[in-house]
Amino acid sequence: MSFSDLFSALGLVLVLEGILPLVAPRVWRDTFRKMIEMTDGQMRFIGLVFMLGGILIIYLIK
User: Fold this and answer.
1) Contact, 31 vs 38, CB < 8 A?
2) Any idea where the domains of the chain sit in the sequence?
3) Neighbours of 20 (CB within 10 A)
4) Spatial separation of the C-alpha atoms in residues 56 and 54, rounded to whole Å
5) How confident is the model over 6-38, as pLDDT tens digits?
6) Can you tell me the distance from the alpha carbon of 44 to that of 36, in angstroms, rounded to the nearest whole number?
7) pTM of the prediction?
8) Contact, 16 vs 23, CB < 8 A?
């Protein structure tokens, strides 16, 4: 894996993260408010699920 691949992946993440605020800012804002109200345990669980999903996708691609 090269730095070019890493920066391409980072760029793709930024593009995907920017879609919802661009297309539906009110929905994004409401979702953000709900996230702020979550407990630390809930946020950690969501982070873990996202990480495992990302690892699974990388594994399936390779």
Assistant:
1) no
2) 3-61
3) 14
4) 5
5) 899 999 999 999 999 999 999 999 998 999 999
6) 13
7) 0.71
8) no
